[in-house]
Amino acid sequence: MARLVQFGLSITRAQDDRLKAIAERDGSSRAEVARRLIEIALPFVDGGLGIDFARLVTILEFCSLAQDCIMQKVAPEEADRLLALAITNAKKYHAAQR
User: Are residues 39 and 70 in the same domain?
Assistant: First the structure.
């Protein structure tokens, strides 16, 4: 693990409650949760980008539904297998790192 630098950080009670809940769920510390969140956000901020989460989720859902519709028409026999593979890949490549 990289060498850590300590510094003071003030957050709201609500933010702290959310960090605690995630840390408890994941079996990690609040500090580890905060570090993971920073690692996720930094590339966007470095690139001068913002994230509209509602739009992002809507696009993901639309693409998922469109692909499902296409698969059911073009290759229905493959649809379930591909969904299972997508779930496996999501867990393998996108699961929270602990």
Answer: no
CB atoms within 10 A of CB 92: 8
Residue 87 · residue 95 · CB < 8 Å: no
Which helix (DSSP H) or strand (DSSP E) does residue 92 occupy? helix 76-94
CA distance 84 to 90: 10
60/43 same-domain check:
no
CB burial of residue 33 (10 Å; 0-12, 13-18, 19+): buried
Query: Which domain range does residue 85 map to?
Result: 52-92
pTM of the predicted model over 0.70:
no
Q: Are residues 45 and 56 in the same domain?
A: no
Paired tokens of 46: 């470095």
Give CA torsion, residues 41, 46, 52, 57, to 10 deg.
Answer: -50
Residue 2 lies in a domain: no
Summarize the confidence of residues 41-65 as an average pLDDT: 90
